[in-house]
Each structure stands twice: as structure tokens, then as C-alpha cells.
Amino acid sequence: MWRWGGVWGVIIFLLSISISAHAATIVWTNTAGGNWSIAANWSPNIVPASGDSALITNSGSYEVALDSGASFSNLFIGGFGNPTLKWLGGDMIGAMVIGSSGVMNVVGPVARDLYGPLTNMGRVNILGNGTMYLQYNGADELGHIVNQSGG
């Protein structure tokens, strides 16, 4: 006898495996700097996606160019030295933390949206008539910045 409940259970199980298998911690490895969208700059060699934790924490002073939009569960920028995220274009979706040695430069005249909270212990610079809007939980209302001591 065929039971739909068993089929749906298997389908839901397989979907949950594929979703949880995708969520990963992805670490920036190119201490010479480079574009966010190039998989070879990350370990493992994939660009962070929705559900992933992205870490830009390697020692040194280098710049990661966010050359397109990005989606992640959370992003941490900081480490020994001064890693910098240079936000050139696109929107970001996810929670962001800028550590005490981290820097984020919002560059250019085009407005950008961050869909998620921003905790800052480092520096956020808005350059070249740049504009950054915080959209929290996807709503068209201002999100929030938590500016910690030293931020």
C-alpha cells in the first residue's frame, strides 16, 4: 500500500539535508585582496550565500572588493591587521559585525541597502557621496547600527 505521508517525510528530509548542507563557514583567504565574487578567494572555494557565515579575518592589511550584491547569514570583518571591505555595488542581506581592526568603506554615489543589523567596533567610512540605508528584516524602515566602544 502506498502511503503519501512516507513520501512527504522523505522529501522533507532530503530538502532539510540539502539546505543544512549548504550552510557553511566560508573564510576569505586572499591576503593580497580581491573581488568578493571570485570563489578562489574563499575557503572552501565558493562565494558565501544565504545561510553561510562569511569571515574576513586573516592577518594583514588587504581590501575585499564587494563588486556585486551579497547574501549571507552573518559576516565578520576583523582580525590582526586591517582587513577592509570596499562596498562598490549591490545590496547586502545578513547580519554584519565589524571587529575592532575591521573597516568598511561604502564607495561611490549610488545608494546601497543593508538588510540586517550592523554591529560596529571598527570603522565605517562613507566616501564619494555614498549613501547606505539600513533595512532591517526586509522592511522599508531604518534598521539599526550598534556602535560599540571604539567604533
List keywords for this structure.
151 residues, five-stranded parallel β-sheet, 14 strands, 40% strand
Would you spell out the secondary-structure blueprint of this structure?
Layout: H1 4-22, E1 25-28, E2 34-35, E3 42-43, E4 53-56, E5 63-66, E6 70-77, E7 84-87, E8 92-98, E9 103-107, E10 111-115, E11 118-120, E12 123-127, E13 131-135, E14 145-147
What class, by secondary structure content? mainly beta
Contiguous uncertain segments of 5+ residues: 1-20
Rg, nearest Å: 18 Å
Distance between the termini: 64 Å
The helix fraction, in percent, is 10-25%
Describe the structure.
This protein is mainly beta. It has 1 helix and 14 strands; from the N terminus they run αββββββββββββββ. It has one helix at residues 4-22; strands at 25-28, 34-35, 42-43, 53-56, 63-66, 70-77, 84-87, 92-98, 103-107, 111-115, 118-120, 123-127, 131-135, 145-147. Strands 1, 3, 4, 6, 8, 10, 11, 13 and 14 form a 9-stranded mixed β-sheet that branches. It is globular, with a radius of gyration of 18 Å. The termini are far apart.
Please sum up the structure shown.
The protein has 151 residues and is mainly β. Helix content is 13%, strand content 40%. Strands 1, 3, 4, 6, 8, 10, 11, 13 and 14 form a 9-stranded mixed beta sheet that branches.
